[in-house]
């Protein structure tokens, strides 16, 4: 463990999309550091399984079925999370949709589905959480991506949504600082064994991504979880409006031009 096990003792978090993938990983990490955790997701089955795992860490847990695209359901879920232990300290906006599709083939509904889940869903949850978070102060953590830093083909919908999420992080940080609420983000690169990697890095793309990453591997769940623990805890008490890139340097190394140049230098030197 990188942090003391009582890092988040007595706090309560709500994590959207917390039944699977990165959301589940963060839920378990927070629970392992003393935090009560409510998880929200569309499917009851993985939610209940994850809630059981959270409980096994010795904290309170609730699996709340809801779709982040439904503001009323989100508000109800936020109320349920706050009722777990009488307070809400942390909101992690993690629920996300993704599929590979070129812009020319993308339907209005396909574009809208991802924007509705990633961007509007984050807004709905943050807005509903505000009255609870401002009671004692707290932290919002938005899970973003690096796809929109460059032009990633077949990811127009996700890039637009995540660029909006980053804007949400910055604006809410400015507006809610006076309530003692910090708003930050994490932009993970490819994280091994997640649905995102299964969907996006098909065939040899997974190995290629690892080779292109300056730190020479895909991310592990722990990499994202440690960043989340830091940003959600008092260790980051003067940090707000930041989106922390956790990708081993991959996006910085993703300019084809620079790569070609470096390769020719390497070849010239050998
Ligand atoms: C083209 C597609 C499509 C596809 C869905 N659509 N999948 N279009 N190619 N593969 C279109 C549908 O045709 C439809 O438009 C619209 O999207 C909505 O689809 P529905 O199935 O009706 O909606 P819904 O079930 O509500 O949501 C679909 C979904 C969701 C958004 C695709 O099921 C989903 O994303 N699940 C995956 C969750 C996931 O993997 N999350 C991790 C993300 S990781 P029409 O016009 O036909 O009605 C991440 C970061 C990755 O984002 C970074 C790694 C490097």
Task: Give a quick summary of the entry.
This protein is of the alpha/beta class and 270 residues long.
Written overview of the protein:
This protein has 270 residues and is α/β, with parallel strands linked by helices. Helices cover 47% and strands 14% of the residues. It contains 9 helices and 7 strands. Strands 3-2-1-4-5-6-7 form a 7-stranded parallel beta sheet, sandwiched between helices. Helix 1 (21-31) runs parallel beside helix 2 (44-55) and helix 1 crosses helix 8 (221-232). The chain starts with 11 loop residues before the first strand and ends with a helix. Bound molecules: hexanoyl-coenzyme A. Hexanoyl-coenzyme A is lined by residues 96-99, 101, 107, 109-110, 113-114, 145, 158, 190, 195-197, 199-200.
Order of helices and strands: EHEHEHEHEHEHHHEH
Helix content: 40-55%
So what's the overall shape? globular
Strand order of the largest sheet: 3-2-1-4-5-6-7
Q: Kindly report the oligomeric state of this protein.
A: single chain
Distance between the termini: 42 Å
Give me the Rg, rounded. 19 Å
Beta-strand residue percentage? 5-15%
Summed over residues and divided by their number, the pLDDT gives a mean of: 96
Q: Structural class, please? A: alpha/beta
Number of helices: 9
The largest sheet, given as strand count, sense and whether it forms a barrel, is: 7 strands, parallel
Hetero groups:
hexanoyl-coenzyme A
Provide the low-confidence segments as ranges.
none
Number of strands: 7
């Amino acid at each position: 463990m990188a942090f003391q096990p009582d890092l988040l003792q007595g706090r309560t978090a709500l994590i959207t999309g917390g039944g699977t993938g990165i959301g589940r990983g963060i839920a378990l990490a927070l629970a392992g550091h003393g935090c009560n955790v409510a998880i929200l997701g569309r499917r009851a089955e993985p939610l209940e399984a994850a809630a059981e795992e959270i409980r096994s860490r010795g904290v309170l847990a609730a699996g709340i079925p809801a779709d982040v695209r439904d503001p009323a359901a989100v508000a109800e879920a936020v109320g349920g999370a706050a009722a777990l232990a009488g307070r809400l300290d942390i909101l992690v906006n993690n629920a996300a949709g993704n599929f590979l599709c070129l812009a020319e083939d993308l339907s209005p509904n396909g574009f809208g589905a991802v924007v509705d889940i990633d961007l509007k869903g984050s807004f709905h949850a943050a807005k509903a959480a505000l009255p609870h978070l401002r009671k004692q102060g707290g932290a919002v953590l938005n899970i973003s991506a690096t796809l929109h830093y460059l032009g990633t083909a077949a990811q127009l919908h996700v890039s637009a949504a995540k660029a909006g999420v980053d804007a949400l992080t910055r604006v809410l940080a400015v507006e809610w600082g006076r309530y003692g609420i910090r708003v930050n983000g994490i932009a993970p690169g490819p994280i091994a064994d997640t649905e995102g990697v299964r969907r996006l890095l098909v065939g040899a793309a997974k190995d290629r991504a690892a080779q292109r990453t300056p730190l020479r591997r895909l991310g592990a769940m722990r990499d994202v979880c440690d960043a989340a623990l830091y940003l959600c805890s008092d260790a980051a008490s003067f940090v707000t409006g930041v989106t922390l890139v956790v990708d081993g340097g991959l996006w910085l190394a993703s300019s084809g031009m620079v790569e070609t140049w470096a390769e020719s230098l390497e070849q010239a030197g050998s």
